[in-house]
Amino acid sequence: MRADLHRAPAARRPSRTRATAAARGRGAGTLTLRALDPFTDTELVHSWVTHPKAPHWQRRDAKLHHVEREYMGIAASEHHHAYLGLLDGEPAFLMERYDPLRAAPVDLYEPEPGDVGLHVLLAPDHETVPDFAETVLATALEYVFADPAAQRVVVESDAADTQARRRYEAVGFVPECETGTPDGLALLSFCARERFEAAVVRRAVAGRPPHAAA
Questions:
Q1: Which candidate, 55, 92, 181, 183, has a CA 20 to 30 Å from the CA of 209?
Q2: Which of 93, 107, 10, 3 is nearest to 56 (CA)?
Q3: What pTM does this model have?
Q4: Phi, psi at residue 11, to the nearest 5°?
Q5: Is 204 exposed, middle or buried (0-12, 13-18, 19+ CB in 10 A)?
Q6: Which residues contact 112 (CB under 8 A, 6 or more apart)?
Q7: What's the alpha-carbon Rg for the chain, to the nearest Å?
Q8: Residues 109-167: pLDDT tens digits?
């Protein structure tokens, strides 16, 4: 379930600097992140956030200009950032990171210093690819935790979405509490830096091919 976050009134063109992280999934290729450009990426993102597979983003009826205005606001914000995720150079997911102390509804939970809010949306044709969601989440967390100031990541999802819960838990998130929103019951989950690091080790070990006995 996606919260309606802070929007700044004006827009500026985002930096085209890329943040790169190697994908961790089996045969997933290489994932890269770049700043979402509301002047060129809105039509694609609009098709994703209004797709029936993205009900938790609550944008089913949004018009193109509504989505464009939202991401122009995000591009102008100092506390909320949007990125387009690329798989081998092709758009594959949307990522947003934000400062919960300044850019989130204050009634969801009490943010702590070092908290970072995260939203991730897979492109509809990647939603059912095995392990891809976990790979994207791990890459997003790797990027967030590259900032030494980030100590904990918070996500919210539909409390009834057990698949999303399993995906988050696979990369280190711990479900903590349910909270009511105007659109239903949301589950808040948290991933501390050390839990993500432990999950990376578990995934690496699980992905190793079996060795023949000596």
A1: 92
A2: 3
A3: 0.81
A4: -120, 150
A5: exposed
A6: 151, 152
A7: 17
A8: 889 999 999 999 999 988 778 889 999 999 999 999 999 999 999 998 888 889 899 99
